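dude i think i finally got it to work??
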Amino acid sequence: MSEAAEKTCRTIETKLGNFYILQAADGTISTSWDKPPDDYREDSDLCPDLAKRLKMYFTGRPVDFSYVPLPSGTEFFRKAWQACRSIKHGTTISYSELARKAGSKAGAARAAGQAMRRNPLPVIIPCHRVVGADGKLHGYSGSQDPEGKPLNLKKALLDLEKNASA
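look at this
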């Protein structure tokens, strides 16, 4: 396999645990709290500007990630991800409000939830800022851990942002 087609990752150490920037063999970038598979090679030079901005974000500072291209997905998912990017640091909106911002009619909250669940760029597309209509935390795509850690991460990210905004 040529170096250009190699899968690489970069580890960002945070107070919340390791966060990863992943680059697939086709060059597609994603982020995750989950440790990459063994076929990803660590590359400390991967995406230097993104890594710098992520480190700033994890100190609690608002960071502009709008230069990162939207990932591929359905038309609605891309609209939902773009709408999610507009949620201000330290604030939240409901899934139904996100669906409206993405151009959907009432009743599309579940579709917005699916878009957030399938978000390949957690933190960069801040799906942790989307909550239930009741204001409670529901789901988080940043980790696939079945033991409740995803909601703990979502709460921790929201707390990080709110504490920095206070």
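The CA atoms of residues 25 and 41 lie 11 Å apart.
im so relieved honestly
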